[in-house]
Amino acid sequence: MFSAVPVTADAPGLVGWFEIRGSDGLDRCGDAVTLRHLADGSAAVVMVDVAGHGRACAHLSFYASTHLMALLAVGTPPAEAARLADLDLRLERGSGAPAFVTAFIARLDPASAQLRYASAGHETALLLHADGTHDELSANGPALGFLDAADFAQTAVSYRDGDRLLVVTDGVTESRDDQGRMFGTTGVVRAAARARQARACPHHIIAAAQAHASDGLRDDACALIIDTTLLAEFSVPADRTSRLLREIPRGARPDLATTHFRRAAP
Questions:
Q1: Can you give the pTM of this predicted structure?
Q2: Least enclosed by CB within 10 Å: which of 49, 52, 71, 197?
Q3: For the domain 13-237, what is the CATH code?
């Protein structure tokens, strides 16, 4: 999605990479990623997965992800952002919109080494440790737009130097081989371990899920990795962010100027 647009030439280094592959082979689909490095030095992360797949869902996935990011950018906590987006989607039910959207909504703060997230019915995210172990960040609330009276929780976890945040959609984990066995979280962890560099990790994961599937990926698939060590190293102070914003070429979207993420390269 739009987070693949490059930042200004003198902006700090990259901290994350992602890959999106729609069921139709395109990257405009029901899965979307939005990432932004905020003025206080934290990073905001949103991944959404719209019910359904393919290009027909692209408009809603883009809208849901950018809406959630706009809320995080003005300081809204992840759980409250989920609640507001859920209300918005429920109000749209009558317009023929898909029944629900799952979302992983988070802020990573390098100053405190804390990850605060709300996972609205989304596939389990992983915090990968340098020693090869990992922690699972499970859903702590229902999908957005799914229930009339929903309660969204927020979870805070600490991360260590060298940890990486890995988030995927269920199009990855639910790919099945000819015996009906799912790729699952185990497949995601194995594929991530085979990637020598973080930048290659999303591509490796989606390629492995596609190879595992007996008839190819039948759902949209998305994988994202964030290197928390780089996040700390390239934290942007507010005064520098303001300067970067002033340097955006006339006519460019200002919300892209502090995005420090790239579409993953094979």
A1: 0.83
A2: 197
A3: 3.60.40.10
